[in-house]
Amino acid sequence: MRANKLDGYLGFTTFGESHGPAMGLVIEDVKPGISFPYDEIKTALFARKGGKNFTATSRNEEDKFEVLSGVFQGKTTGMPICIVIFNKNHQSKDYENIANIFRPGHADFSYFKKFKIYDYRGGGRSSGRETISRVAASEMVNHLLKGIELIAYPIRIGKFIPNKISYSFLKTNYLKWGDENNYDELIRYLEKIKAEKDSVGSIIRFEIRNVPSGLGDPVFEKLEANIAKAILSIGSVKGIQFGAGFSLGKMKGSEANDEIKDGKFLTNNNGGILGGISTGQTIVFDFVSKPVPSIGKVQNTIDIEGENREIKITGRHDLVLTSRIIPVAIAMIKLVLSDAISYQKLIKNEKNTLNDFREQLEKIDEDILIAIARRNEISKQIGKFKKENKIGIVDSKRETEILNLLKNKALNLKINPKIISNIWKEIFEESKRQQ
Ligand SMILES: Cc1cc2nc3c(=O)[nH]c(=O)nc-3n(C[C@H](O)[C@H](O)[C@H](O)COP(=O)(O)O)c2cc1C
Asked: In angstroms, what is the span from residue 320 Cα to ligand 1's centroid?
């Protein structure tokens, strides 16, 4: 399923279920000769890890990763890099009593509706543990992000809001809470929610500082759109807003517009992005992470037969996702920014070394390969259709028609039609083999 592959400057495929043997990823397009960021990955995985404070799951995974391929003597070789993180501290027995009973708010119901089978142990692929692979991957793009500062902190946890944000204080606590005046009270509130066997949501503010202007592209590659997709792809995130966000709906144009004077913006209601392209101001957005669905309170649900059931979840779960989700959001933003920056370099023609040109060609060659693989898939389906409907496989007339059409198009693109004839001769042969 292509849904497990992220395309972009750093394309990779992730795999693994929460209670399966391992989580991991395969990265195919890393340049050879880059020092592999062992320490950076270790630090990032530690930041995401549970088991470190009472608001996070007590599942205490070591999160030690192993590099199975693509790295030799500490350097990337240009071959596929496979990183695995073995699951060691899972307790599948916690899930036996709720097997086949859908957890309200979790993905069990919709996964079952779609696939007719789901791994109830820890949510399988829909588990928050899935995010570990993204965090590992994101450490491969740090060299592109030099100078850019990523800061994230909650502006709400349940009923609590920080009345001020002290950037020095938020660095001292795992919740990244910015207000020392109500921090202790917040902790007591969270302890109470835990004792009540409940969970709570939070809203995280994200600031991207020292970001260059010009990142993001019209029209489907708008920076906001790509950030939103990246953040919304994280489990539990249900909303995102940029700059003044939904408050813009209450404002007049004269209040909302970010006026410019003496070369400087006077406000940042647009969150540092205009027309999908960064302005050079700090990019600011907020996202909401819903309350952790698995709670110990009795709730109504149904089982896979559709029978009414009551459920009380006893496994080890996060209480609020703040400390767990911030490192994941940082990872996703690193990936989005590295895409935008590498594309911006192309526009500015900064990529002019032989290696950079070769890298671009390699990407194009890979796209061609993917297109051929897709063509083969469709050929197989056509073959099946033809057999079912007793239609002959070879259709020389159609081949000639396609070839003539392509040759005409090739002429318009200033491509020698002879090349097209040669390539498509092979493609037609392959298509017949697939059928
Ligand atoms: C880092 C992280 C940890 C999570 N931990 C838990 C957890 O312990 N228990 C739980 O029920 N959901 C947890 N979730 C949330 C679920 O993965 C998520 O709610 C579920 O997949 C349903 O998807 P949705 O909320 O995006 O609709 C976690 C999510 C993340 C990103």
From this structure: 10
Task: Write down the number of H helices and E strands in the chain.
Answer: 11, 17
Whether 234 lines ligand 1, by a CB cut-off of 6 Å, is yes
Q: Provide the pairing of β-strand 65-69 with 264-265.
A: unpaired
Q: What angle do CA 300, 101, 299 make, to 5 degrees?
A: 20
Centre of ligand 1 to C-alpha 158, Å, is 17
| Cα distance between residue 31 and residue 75, in whole Å | 10
The per-residue pLDDT for range 37-66, each reduced to its tens digit, is: 999 999 999 999 998 999 999 888 899 999
Whether 235 lines ligand 1, by a CB cut-off of 6 Å, is yes
d(CA 185, ligand 1 centre) in Å:
26
Report whether residue 293 contacts ligand 1, using a CB cutoff of 6 Å. Answer: yes
CA distances from 181 to 159, 162, 163, 202, 393 (A): 15, 8, 8, 19, 76
Q: Is 119 in the pocket of ligand 1 (CB under 6 A)?
A: no
- 329-356 confidence digits (pLDDT tens): 999 999 999 999 988 877 776 656 777 6
If you measure from the C-alpha of residue 150 to the centroid of ligand 1, how many angstroms do you get, rounded to a whole number?
23
Domains present along the chain, CATH in parentheses: 2-347 (3.60.150.10), 354-434 (1.20.59.10)
From CA 57, how far away is CA 127, in angstroms rounded? 12
Report how far residue 4's alpha carbon sits from residue 12's, in angstroms, rounded to the nearest whole number.
8
Measure the CA dihedral 52/338/224/280, to 10°: 110
**pLDDT digits 0-9 by tens, 117-163:** 988 888 899 999 999 999 999 999 998 999 999 999 999 999 999 99
Atom of ligand 1 nearest to the CA of 295: 11
Is the sign of the CA dihedral 232, 236, 238, 243 positive or negative? negative
127 Cβ closer than 6 Å to some ligand 1 atom:
yes
Instruction: State yes or no: pLDDT of 217 exceeds 60.
Output: yes
Cβ(327) – ligand 1 distance below 6 Å: no
pLDDT at 303 over 70: yes
Here the tokens at position 296 are 């110990």
pLDDT in tens, 154-192: 999 999 999 999 999 999 999 999 999 999 999 999 999
- Give pTM, 2 decimals: 0.82
- Report CA(312)–ligand 1 centroid distance (Å): 17
